[in-house]
Amino acid sequence: MQIYLPIAEVSVNAFMLLGLGGLVGLLSGMFGVGGGFLLTPLLFFIGIPPAVAVATGANQIVASSISGVLAHLRRKTVDLRMGSVLLIGGLAGAAMGVGLFNYLKSLGQVDLLVQLCYVIFLGIIGALMFVESLRALRKVKRGGPPARKKHFAVHGWPLKVRFRTSGLYISVIPPIFVGVAVGVLSAVMGVGGGFIMVPAMIYLLGMPTKVVIGTSLFQIIFVAAFTTLLHASSSHTVDIMLALLLILGGVIGAQLGTRIAVYLKAEQLRILLAVLVLAVCGKIALDLLLEPAEHYSIAFIKAD
């Protein structure tokens, strides 16, 4: 069933959009990521303009994250205090990111920026997560002793706060910095930022994996919603019809994802996420490097 998207100015299959939303919602519930790192490139691939994909994708991220958080709250695996600290930095970063996005959009360079950001960030983070997860799996298979709680360098910073759900007593400065970075990426790349936040919370802050997923989703809800609002009011690139179809699929997928995650070990979840990140990175890199099927495209710039 073909439908016309007025802001994106293209016709797409409605069932395909529902399926994309469901897939991304599934990832949200399983890994604690908003899923934008996968959704936005997939929207590129089916012909949605990058500017519209980035701004509209944040809507779906909000819906699937809310669905996932509700499931994690029932299991008491959400650190609300840590999530609030991350949110402070996330909102500030989102505001900066939207400003950068609009500036590059006015120069006509936003499409290239978004794709390069995906290749760089997904490649680095995916590779690091994959290597670390393989080491952890090998250690478990050999029957090695459980990993000791590490003393991270950031644990010695000032302004310490006790995060009881995570079992941590650390400075609020590193979580705020993580939040700012995620907020900028959310605005520029149309992602929830979970693919940055989840590794940072595990390897930088030292949070337990079972708490990381729900806490990450909690922060993503507000940052993605704020980003969507800024994009809608400043660049007018949010397509409501596209957002509704993605949201419908995403809410259903998130509930399924949280149920699947219960049956997988932390190391297995991390390595699956790493493989997905690297696969998306490889596809975008190929699209940038390979010769396109059509050498020219007809486009126009709307007058202000």
Question: TL;DR of this structure?
Answer:
By secondary structure, this protein is mainly α.
Please provide a written account of the structure.
The chain is mainly α and 304 residues long. The protein has one domain. The chain has ten helices and four strands, in the order E-E-H-H-H-H-H-E-E-H-H-H-H-H. It has helices at residues 14-31, 36-45, 50-74, 80-107, 110-141, 173-189, 194-204, 209-234, 240-261, 266-289; strands spanning 2-5, 10-13, 160-163, 168-171. A two-stranded antiparallel sheet has the order 1-2. The two termini are 34 Å apart. The model is unreliable at 298-304 (pLDDT under 50). The chain crosses the membrane at residues 12-39, 85-104, 110-131, 172-205, 211-230, 242-264. It is found in: Cell membrane; Membrane. InterPro entries: TM_pro_TauE-like, TSUP/Inactive_protease-like.
Rg, Å, rounded: 19 Å
For the record, give the distance between the C-alpha atoms at the N and C termini, rounded to a whole number: 34 Å
Structural class: mainly alpha
Give the overall shape.
Answer: globular
* Oligomerization status of the protein chains: single chain
What is the average per-residue confidence, as pLDDT, rounded to a whole number? 75
Number of DSSP strand runs: 4
Low-confidence runs of at least 5 consecutive residues: 298-304
